[in-house]
Amino acid sequence: MLDKKITIQELQEKKKRGEKITMLTAYDYPIASMVDEAGIDMILVGDSLGMVVLGYKDTLSVSMDDMIRHSQAVKRATKRALIVGDMPYKSFDTPKDAVKNAKRFIEEAGCDAVKLENQEESSFDSAAAIIKAGIAVEGHLGLTPQSVEKLGGFKVQGRTPEAAQKIIDNAKRLEKMGCFSIVLECVPAELGKMITKSLSIPTIGIGAGADCDGQVLVIHDIIGLFERFTPKFVKKYAILAPVIKDAVRQYIKEVKEGKFPSADHIFK
Ligand code: KIV
């Protein structure tokens, strides 16, 4: 049924049945309404907000207040999808801050769960503390954009046996501490498959191959609204930027030529 709220338990059952899980980002009311109505399982209010909506060069400048405001807009629009709020840079450096900020996503914004990037050792303690506080956590391994400097750029992770083993170990660690799912970003497809097979919780891949339990992409990438660059793992299902520019050019032309507003658009 398309209007029944998706639960974490249902996502886990989908994994057991081998049914793929779908996830997209959204950051505002109109896009979240469309994504939800189209039938997506999970909406991620990603800190990619910083790049595709706020115009920063990376995700590091996104604040908790930015995330809460945009998560609130997504919540107003969403009837069915499970909403995951992405914890921004510096918001989970200590377990205490992590719990305080995760609670904001749930209590102020109405999210159903939070996601945090697991690169620093402290992020594992923070994830454990949030789970202990009763909040559902999705982990994030592989390419973690908040650590882009440390990783030497937006590069595929887990290419050596040692690096791959570390990601596998960390995935098991996150599962053991009670994460309900893990995002795997930019890892070789074989590694995505191996991790997916070794876990009982769903993996959601982004550039991690077709064998993950689900897939996530940034909505602005798949509808062609973000023109600065397109990662290899993105497939564009629509190219809207030229459509919008054409509409604006036509409007400018008609206003200049006195064709708009016409009789249909004025009050007598
Ligand atoms: O912020 C984001 O959009 C993300 C996805 C790329 C997984 O974290």
TrEMBL record:
Coiled coil: none annotated. The gene is panB. Catalyzes the reversible reaction in which hydroxymethyl group from 5,10-methylenetetrahydrofolate is transferred onto alpha-ketoisovalerate to form ketopantoate. It comes from Candidatus Aquitaenariimonas noxiae. This is 3-methyl-2-oxobutanoate hydroxymethyltransferase. The active site is at E185 (proton acceptor). Belongs to the PanB family. It holds the Pfam family Pantoate_transf. It catalyses: (6R)-5,10-methylene-5,6,7,8-tetrahydrofolate + 3-methyl-2-oxobutanoate + H2O = 2-dehydropantoate + (6S)-5,6,7,8-tetrahydrofolate. InterPro entries: Pantoate_hydroxy_MeTrfase (IPR003700), Pyrv/PenolPyrv_kinase-like_dom (IPR015813), Pyrv_kinase-like_dom_sf (IPR040442).
